[in-house]
């Protein structure tokens, strides 16, 4: 079997730069063979950096025979049509989260994937986040006893590369399917699911503090999980300056694990009031693991760390939070 995966990057915007950095840093098995974007300047810039061919038309790119896999990084409302088109063309598909803005659209994508022999994977990089994996391992080892509760917090300012355009698509509820919960919020929901099991129900309140964003730019939710824990889920696209706050804290009967914003993992077991540093990670390394996993699945047939169906969990959680905001009561996730 060929030891190089020829891949097209479809959508050459901000997230494509993060994916490309991961490939260049740690995934030599992937060769970027095509850059596809409706903006010819963006396609040309990525092609110049990688030596790939630039395309502004996806059908033309698929007909070129220059690649075997696609990395789809597009506005959410385009995911279903483009993913199915690529799967039907015989491509291996890595699709940015969310799989699609509705469960019905996701089911149609999954049906198309099952009808092909190619690899289909949803790009949820939190599955490979080093700090999250360390906490998972420590929990499995019983480092803090029985897990009682957790908190996930993502209060962030808008990154220029994602929100700097005159009319960023993430400001459109029709294009994004919602706001911060369905978008970046998934990166905080997946770790909670990895640590606590499936989310079963949630009660949420939404807000709109960030000007111009049609979907919610604030969500505060309580979430119950199948293993009995209750977690707080806090996400906000902040309109002003922010102070430091842990990204995650997991509290158990015998201590606590905290992931700080700088990627440091601390264990609080009572022996050291300031906690013991047990690891240091980097969020961007999660993309390296994600792209390496996709390459291995295609080239060597290894199963991905999480099948594409797992991504339905983040979507269902987001949709349940949206329902809860409207009904003002607890809503079932599944």
Descriptive overview:
The chain is of the alpha/beta class and 334 residues long. It has two domains: 121 residues, Rossmann fold (3-Layer(aba) Sandwich), CATH 3.40.50; 177 residues, Dihydrodipicolinate Reductase, domain 2, CATH 3.30.360.10. Helix content is 34%, strand content 26%. It is built from eleven helices and 15 strands. The strands form two sheets. A nine-stranded mixed beta sheet has the order 14-13-12-11-7-10-9-8-15. Strands 3-2-1-4-5-6 form a six-stranded parallel beta sheet, with helices on both faces. The longest helix is centred in the last third of the chain and has 16 residues. The protein is globular. The N and C termini lie far apart (41 Å). The mean pLDDT is 96.
Strand arrangement, major sheet: 14-13-12-11-7-10-9-8-15
Can you identify the CATH superfamily of the largest domain? Answer: Dihydrodipicolinate Reductase, domain 2
Mean pLDDT: 96
Q: Rough shape?
A: globular
- Work out the helix count: 11
Q: Report the radius of gyration as a whole number of Å.
A: 20 Å
What is the highest CATH level, the class of the largest domain?
Alpha Beta
- What is the fold-level CATH name, i.e. the topology of the largest domain? Dihydrodipicolinate Reductase, domain 2
Query: What is the string of helix and strand elements?
Result: EHEHEHEHEHEHEHHHEEEEEEEHHE
* Tally of DSSP β-strands: 15
């Amino acid at each position: 079997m060929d030891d190089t995966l020829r891949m097209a990057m479809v959508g050459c915007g901000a997230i494509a730069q993060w994916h490309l950095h991961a490939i260049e840093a740690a995934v030599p098995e992937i060769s970027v063979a095509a850059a596809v974007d409706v903006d010819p300047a963006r396609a040309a810039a990525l092609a110049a950096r990688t030596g790939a061919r630039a395309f502004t038309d996806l059908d033309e790119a698929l007909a070129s025979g220059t690649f075997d896999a696609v990395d789809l990084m597009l506005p959410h409302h385009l995911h279903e049509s483009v993913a199915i088109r690529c799967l039907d063309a015989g491509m291996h598909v890595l699709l940015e989260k969310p799989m699609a803005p509705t469960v019905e659209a996701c089911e149609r994508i999954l049906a198309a994937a099952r009808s092909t022999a190619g690899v289909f994977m949803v790009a949820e990089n939190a599955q490979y986040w080093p700090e999250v994996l360390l906490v998972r391992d420590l929990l499995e080892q019983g480092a803090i006893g029985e897990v009682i509760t957790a908190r996930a917090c993502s209060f962030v300012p808008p990154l220029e590369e994602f929100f700097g355009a005159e009319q960023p698509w993430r400001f459109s509820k029709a294009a994004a399917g919602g706001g911060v919960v369905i978008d970046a919020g998934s990166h905080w929901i997946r770790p909670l699911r990895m640590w606590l099991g499936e989310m079963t129900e949630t009660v949420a309140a939404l807000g709109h503090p960030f000007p111009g964003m049609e979907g919610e730019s604030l969500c505060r939710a309580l979430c119950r999980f199948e293993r009995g824990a209750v977690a707080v889920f806090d996400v906000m696209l902040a309109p002003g300056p922010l102070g430091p706050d842990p990204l995650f804290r997991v509290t158990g009967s015998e201590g606590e694990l905290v992931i700080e914003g700088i990627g440091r993992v601390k264990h609080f077991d009572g022996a050291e009031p300031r906690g013991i540093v047990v690891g240091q990670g980097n969020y961007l390394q999660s993309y390296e693991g994600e792209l390496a996993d996709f390459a291995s699945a295609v080239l060597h047939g290894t199963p991905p760390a999480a099948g594409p169906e797992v991504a339905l969990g983040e979507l269902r959680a987001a949709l349940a939070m949206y329902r809860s905001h409207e009904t003002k009561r607890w809503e079932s996730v599944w």
